[in-house]
Specification:
CATH class of the largest domain: Alpha Beta
Structural class: alpha/beta
Oligomer: single chain
Distance between the termini: 13 Å
Number of domains: 2
Number of strands: 11
Radius of gyration: 19 Å
CATH architecture of the largest domain: 2-Layer Sandwich
CATH superfamily of the largest domain: ATPase, nucleotide binding domain
Helix content: 25-40%
Length: 256
């Protein structure tokens, strides 16, 4: 069994694979000061209710954009799983040529999404990952990771709006009933929702103009399913894209 961990700034997503099948997944908060023992006990407690045998885990792959927790996760895998985790980085064999000016600057999650987007849907493609930031990752038809764009995430926008204003309430992100809000909450939700879609579609329009009209646009991440409902360009929603990308990279590097 393969354990795949995608450690982001806000959440860490964990998936258990039997072969290529994702049999279970969990989403936890990214806690910077959590110890290796706490991570190990937490993972053990996740497996039992799911009816999975944690003793069958014989491989672990990690994509992390949170360097302070990397050493903790590495120690946890050694102590509780008796194996060294594989961390995805610019030197990892991912099956894509990296055309970034400095490959060391590319976040591991962006590379993983690029792999999954290209090998699941073909190229050219652009993956839009909606997490703490909104990442646009572009892959050519020849399997080259070209780069992309990084924009402010929806959660950051909500928190900034609430913290920088005296009278505006903090609201949930959801599709509004109408673009014209008739109360303060509805007005904020309209601005957040249609503002996010406008930004995303505006970037996608330019990316598709550059890569060609056959470019596939794939959405993943927290609020992606809601954005796809209103987007002109995002028609594919793939909830497990990042975890599946991790499984693909593991398989490429462990062909046996």
């Amino acid at each position: 069994m393969l354990l795949a961990l995608d450690a982001g700034n806000t959440n860490i997503t964990i998936g258990a694979f039997e072969g290529r099948d994702l049999v279970c997944q969990w989403r936890l908060r990214t806690v910077h000061d959590q110890t290796a023992d706490e991570w190990g006990i937490l993972l053990h407690n996740l497996f039992s209710p799911a009816g999975l045998d944690i003793g069958k885990v014989d491989g672990i792959i990690i994509s992390s954009v949170v360097p302070p927790i990397d050493s903790t996760l590495a120690f946890m895998t050694q102590r509780y799983f008796h194996t060294d985790a594989m961390f995805v980085g610019p030197g990892t064999n991912i099956g894509l040529k990296i055309r970034y000016d400095n490959p060391n600057e590319v976040g591991a999650d962006r590379l993983v999404n690029g792999v999954a987007g290209f090998y699941k849907y073909g190229g050219p493609c652009v993956v839009v990952d909606m997490g703490t930031t909104i990442n646009f990752d572009c892959i050519s038809g020849e399997g080259e990771y070209l780069g992309g764009a990084i924009a402010v995430g929806i959660g950051i926008s909500i928190n900034a709006l609430f913290s920088k204003t005296a009278r505006l309430p903090k609201v949930d992100f959801r599709p509004p009933n109408d673009v014209i809000g008739t109360n303060t909450v509805a007005s904020i939700q309209s601005g957040l929702y249609f503002g996010a879609i406008g930004m995303i579609d505006g970037i996608l329009e330019r990316v598709i103009d550059k890569l060609g009209c056959s470019t596939k646009a794939i959405a993943t991440g927290g609020q992606a399913h809601m954005i796809v409902e209103g987007s002109r360009y995002l028609k594919i929603y793939d909830e497990h894209l990042t975890l599946q990308g991790l499984q693909m990279i593991w398989e490429r590097n462990h062909p046996a």
